[in-house]
Structure formats: structure tokens, C-alpha cells
Amino acid sequence: MKNKLLTAAAALAMLTAVPLGIGAAQSAAAQGAGQSGGSGQSAGSRSDGPIGGYDGWWNATPASGNATSLPQETVAVNTATNQVVDTFNRRINDAGRATRLTDVAYTVVPDPGWPAHSVVIIDTATNRVIADFRVDARGEPIR
Fold first, then answer.
1. Is residue 89 a contact partner of residue 97, using CB atoms and an 8 Å limit?
2. Phi and psi (nearest 5°) for 138?
3. Which residue from 7, 24, 59, 122 could staple onto 88, CB 3.0 to 4.6 Å apart?
4. CA-based diameter of the chain, in Å?
5. pLDDT 10s digit of each residue in the chain, 143 long?
């Protein structure tokens, strides 16, 4: 009985360490593989945002495999710091490697219309915000 309780406690501790929702799949994979997912950055080098980055429709792969209507490259910008905190490049991802922050050359031009205390997802081909969501001071999505 004691071993079952320890196992349940360990499982609960692991679940609470993984950001649920956006970034959860990448974070869980990163913890299992010992590396981060979306951005290729280690926990020690990320200033904000969940380890492994943010997941959403913009960096998903449809079941059909046809991603031609989806963005090919995106950046996630924290509006509190105006820093790129996550990147995604479909070509790099499709080749089996996580996109690193250094893989995407993007200069942030802050927009006063961006929502405060949020992350905005920008399609680098059009420079348009395609998604946004509120985050806490650590960059974790607020539900």
C-alpha cells in the first residue's frame, strides 16, 4: 500500500510540474527526453513561458498532413517584455528538430494595441498577430 501511495504522489508531482494546455505535450515530451520541445531552450535559459513552448493551431499538424493553409513560421512575443519567448518553423519541425529561438530571425516591433500581460503569436510571413492569450508573470497561460 505504501508503494502505491508513493507512486501516486510521484505521478501527481510530475503532473503539477507540466503546464497543462498550451505547451503541455511538448513539456511532457521534454521531461521524458531530458530536453525542451518547442524552442529547444533549456529551463535555465528561458526567462518566461513554459518549458517546451506554447502549442496551438498555428504549430499543429492536421491529421491529413496538409499544412499548406497554416503558418510556416511563427514567433511568440511576451507583451510585458516585448521579447520573443518561443518560435516555430514548420520546415525545421518537419525535419524532426525543435525550433530554437536562434533559428528564427525576427525583430519585435511592439504594438500598443497588443493585449497587456499576454503572449501574441505572430506569423512571420505576414507580421500579423494570429493568436493571443493572457499569461502570468512567469509566462504560464492563465485559464
1. no
2. -90, -5
3. 59
4. 58
5. 544 444 444 443 333 323 333 333 333 333 333 333 344 443 333 445 566 789 999 999 899 989 999 999 999 999 999 999 999 999 999 999 999 999 999 999 999 999 999 999 999 999 999 999 999 999 999 98
The rounded distance, in Å, linking the Cα atoms of 61 and 63 is 7
Helices (H), the chain: 2-17, 24-33, 90-94
Three cell numbers written together for 38 = 518547442
Task: With 0.70 as the threshold, say if the pTM is over it.
Answer: no
Task: Assess contact for 48 and 136: CB atoms under 8 A.
Answer: no
Amino acid at 25: A
Q: What is the DSSP letter of 94?
A: H
